[in-house]
């Protein structure tokens, strides 16, 4: 499960007209489809592999391309809404999402699907920030809290629907379209939301910062080169061009950092204020977000390949087995605020240890059972994992944002939201290396045995990332206690 938070201080605007129920429903639909499409692809991966003859590397790109484009352009989408009108940009994003979804559903090859997923992620980055911003400026007090509560519930339901409804859509093979239906269903829904968006009051902040398009291009190119090296390198046995991509990635990202520092020194509005990342506690919080969120999409990918490709379950059954984990995530998310209010960061650290323990137990259970595994027997471990993950993910963003001053909250939220998706994309590439490498080394064992061992091998990344996050949480807690004692 995942979450995206791109909050900013509420700004007074003459356009803060009351929003009706229909307008709020349209906004919530925008949040739903962006998160739904983060999750639904996982249950369709085996079907995509079969119909498109997709390689393991291409499977990784189908997932990571959306997350990377979405993450890199979230700040851009927020600034475009501020300057040109949040409803207008929401409508453009919704129309773009419907168009990109149509391209995904009609893609004839894996490479064209990857390109369409990039466009889909770009459109999601335009529409999703407007959901948060429009709720903030259209409601006050209890009404705002209620609207954000409905948004949180909607995003949680989107995660569950991505597994269960998505599994049913793929399994039902509507009109013989197999996996294509999960994208094509967005077209009429997106166009309907676009048409009804006139019920959303317009709002803008003309004095908002201008968009640094060259900076966005640099960071996007740098991260794309890094993913290209990490995903293609292992499958192709690390040819020279993959090493060149890695080196070019470092050079391009260094150029991006240099540009951001120069813009800040001139009094401009950089895409990322690197001065924030120079603050040790906020930098540690950002690393925490990347580590924890790198495990989410990685787990979904490994799970789908294990139970569908390895053990031959259909997409609906795979989704039904995982659905209780999503319910556990919602329960953990609801309990987290009360636990943090009572026990502070220690509650997050304990939840991280429980999350790591559940992941390690799942890894060992699958590895030990091998081909004799009954996928339904994983259900208790998946519920444990989902609840612990929800208790970690939900307060983590607020913890990171608590390390900066209120005047820096908008930029800090943009950085954290971006790093959520970048971490998810990098996590997919990391487990892809481990999963694919284990499959290639499996030898003559049966397909179920090979996938069980590959699953156990890949989850070593998740265990390591979660343990590193728990260590960072311990360090932050110790630093906080030291500061109070002085």
List keywords for this structure.
486 residues, mainly alpha, disordered C terminus
Would you give an account of this structure?
The protein has 486 residues and is mainly α. It contains 18 helices and no strands. It has helices spanning 21-52, 56-72, 74-84, 86-106, 110-138, 141-172, 181-184, 186-196, 213-235, 240-265, 274-277, 280-293, 296-310, 315-343, 345-369, 379-401, 409-440, 447-485. α3 packs across α4 (86-106) and α14 runs antiparallel to α15 (345-369). The longest helix is centred in the C-terminal third of the chain and has 39 residues, at 447-485. The protein is globular and about 65 Å long. The model is unreliable at 7-17 and 482-486 (pLDDT under 50).
Structural class by helix and strand composition: mainly alpha
Distance between the termini: 39 Å
Evaluate the radius of gyration.
22 Å
* Unreliable spans: 7-17, 482-486
Can you tell me the overall shape?
Answer: globular
Main sheet characteristics: none
Portion in beta strands: under 5%
């Amino acid at each position: 499960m995942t979450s995206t938070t791109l909050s900013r201080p509420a700004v007074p605007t003459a356009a803060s007209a009351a929003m009706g129920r229909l307008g709020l429903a349209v906004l919530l639909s925008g949040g739903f489809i962006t998160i739904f499409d983060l999750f639904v692809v996982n249950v369709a991966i085996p079907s995509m592999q079969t119909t498109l003859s997709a390689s393991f590397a291409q499977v990784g790109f189908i997932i990571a391309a959306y997350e990377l484009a979405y993450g890199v352009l979230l700040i851009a989408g927020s600034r475009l809404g501020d300057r040109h009108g949040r409803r207008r940009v929401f409508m453009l994003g919704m129309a773009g999402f419907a168009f990109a979804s149509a391209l995904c559903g009609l893609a004839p090859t894996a490479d064209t699907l990857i390109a369409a997923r990039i466009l889909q992620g770009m459109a999601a980055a335009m529409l999703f920030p407007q959901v948060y911003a429009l709720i903030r400026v259209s409601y006050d007090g209890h009404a705002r809290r209620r609207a954000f509560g409905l948004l949180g519930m909607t995003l949680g339901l989107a995660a569950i629907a991505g597994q269960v409804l998505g599994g049913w859509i793929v399994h039902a093979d509507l009109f013989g379209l197999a996996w294509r239906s999960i994208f094509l269903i967005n077209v009429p829904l997106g166009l309907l939301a676009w048409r009804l968006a006139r019920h959303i009051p317009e709002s803008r902040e003309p004095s908002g910062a201008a968009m640094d398009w060259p900076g966005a291009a640099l960071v996007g190119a740098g991260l794309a080169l890094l993913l290209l090296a990490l995903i293609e390198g292992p499958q192709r046995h690390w040819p020279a061009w993959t090493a060149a991509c890695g080196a070019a990635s470092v050079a391009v990202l260094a150029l991006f950092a240099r540009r951001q520092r120069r813009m800040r020194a001139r009094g401009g509005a950089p895409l990322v204020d690197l001065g924030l990342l120079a603050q040790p506690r906020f930098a540690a919080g950002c690393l925490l977000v990347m580590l924890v969120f790198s495990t989410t999409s990685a787990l979904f990918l490994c799970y789908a390949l294990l139970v569908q490709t390895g053990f031959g379950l259909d997409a609906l059954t795979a989704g039904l087995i995982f659905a209780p984990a999503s319910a556990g995530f919602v329960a953990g998310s609801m309990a987290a605020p009360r636990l943090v209010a009572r026990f502070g960061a220690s509650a997050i650290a304990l939840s991280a240890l429980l999350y790591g323990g559940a992941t390690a137990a799942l890894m060992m259970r699958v590895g030990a059972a091998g081909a004799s595994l009954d996928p339904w027997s994983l259900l208790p471990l998946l519920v444990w994992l989902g609840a612990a993950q929800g208790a970690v993910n939900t307060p983590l963003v607020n913890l990171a944002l608590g390390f900066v001053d209120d005047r820096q909250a908008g930029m800090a939220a943009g950085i954290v939201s971006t790093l959520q998706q970048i971490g998810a994309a990098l996590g997919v590439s990391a487990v892809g290396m481990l999963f694919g490498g284990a499959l290639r080394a499996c030898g003559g064992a049966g397909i179920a045995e090979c996938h069980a061992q590959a699953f156990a091998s890949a989850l070593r990344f998740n265990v390591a990332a979660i343990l590193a996050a728990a260590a960072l949480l311990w360090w932050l807690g110790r630093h906080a206690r030291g500061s109070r004692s002085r």
